[in-house]
Structure to design on (332 residues):
């Protein structure tokens, strides 16, 4: 049965047992199978060999072969590279990002995205990842840091988009970036503040964790990559990745609504019930809330979610287990 996303989310939240959810999970189409068809279609329509696809995307041949077998890219940037290799327009790239990458469309107030948007509207440049690399390097060389604007003019994102569409040269792009650097720096400030608020809340409520982020990370067994994310958030340099946001939400004892709010602050859609992995996260976190594991101190929520994910025995979920603490397998 083809459920709407709203109906499917409601059904997931109503599941009373793991076995009941596993039956529902079988009705959700596999994202891996869908991805395999999409990547093969892109390569066939573009007459792209494995080698040429790898070259266009800046990855190895092995990576492309894995995509052909249903392996889904782990980063938003890879989805952008693939969309460029497919020859998509701006609308096509954005549709591809949101539908298959479950990540935000190109955002004019993001410096990286601004370069991609500039390329897509240029009639002088090849619309490729190679162009992005070259322009990014030239921007770094040509930026006059002494002229970086220190104030944000408060323009809407649409205004930045329209200005980017009208730029005609690298010199104009450099001038644009220099003049509006403050806006680029502020794109995720609300997200950073939200994460920091929850880190402080966890520190205050967890006496045994001490008063440092390091102690909290040790107690909750944060992965090395998650520690890097938090470090970059503190330095206001983090470019959010969807799975890391989900990991942060679980480690910081959020409920589904709070995690969805964090995703929105990252300019992303909420947890997607038609994605097998994210449907499992919705189910696990909803069950955790019913069992009063949400909002507690320490790693109880992490361990509970991990126990649910492991019990599902579903391959599309296994990659996320490394994000969760080890130990207490029999606690739940």
């Amino acid at each position: 049965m083809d459920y709407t996303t709203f109906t499917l989310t409601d059904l997931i939240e109503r599941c009373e047992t793991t076995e009941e959810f596993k039956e529902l999970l079988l009705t959700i189409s596999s994202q891996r199978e869908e991805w395999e068809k999409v990547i093969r279609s892109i390569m066939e329509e573009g007459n792209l060999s494995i080698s040429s696809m790898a070259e266009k995307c800046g990855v190895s041949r092995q990576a492309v072969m894995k995509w052909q077998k249903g392996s889904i890219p782990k980063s938003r940037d890879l989805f952008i590279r693939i969309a460029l290799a497919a020859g998509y327009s701006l609308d096509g790239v954005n549709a591809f990002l949101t539908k298959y990458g479950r990540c935000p469309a190109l955002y004019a107030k993001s410096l990286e995205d601004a370069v991609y948007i500039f390329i897509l509207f240029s009639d002088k440049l090849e619309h490729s990842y190679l162009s992005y690399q070259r322009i990014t390097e030239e921007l770094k060389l040509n930026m006059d840091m002494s002229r970086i604007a220190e104030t944000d003019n408060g323009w809407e994102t649409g205004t930045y988009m329209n200005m980017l569409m009208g730029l005609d040269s690298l010199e104009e792009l450099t001038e644009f970036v220099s003049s509006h650097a403050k806006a680029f720096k502020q794109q995720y400030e609300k997200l950073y503040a939200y994460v920091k608020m929850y880190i402080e809340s966890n520190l205050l409520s967890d006496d045994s964790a001490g008063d440092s982020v390091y102690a909290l990370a040790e107690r909750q067994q944060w992965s090395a990559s998650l520690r890097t994310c938090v470090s970059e958030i503190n330095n206001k340099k983090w470019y959010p990745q969807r799975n890391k946001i989900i990991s942060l939400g679980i480690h910081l004892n959020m409920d589904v609504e709070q995690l969805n709010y964090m995703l929105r602050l990252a300019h992303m859609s909420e947890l997607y019930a038609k994605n097998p992995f994210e449907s499992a996260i919705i189910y696990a976190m909803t069950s955790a809330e019913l069992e009063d594991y949400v909002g507690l101190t320490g790693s109880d929520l992490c361990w509970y979610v991990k126990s649910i994910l492991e019990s599902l025995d579903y391959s599309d979920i296994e990659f996320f287990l490394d994000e969760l603490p080890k130990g207490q397998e029999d606690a739940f």
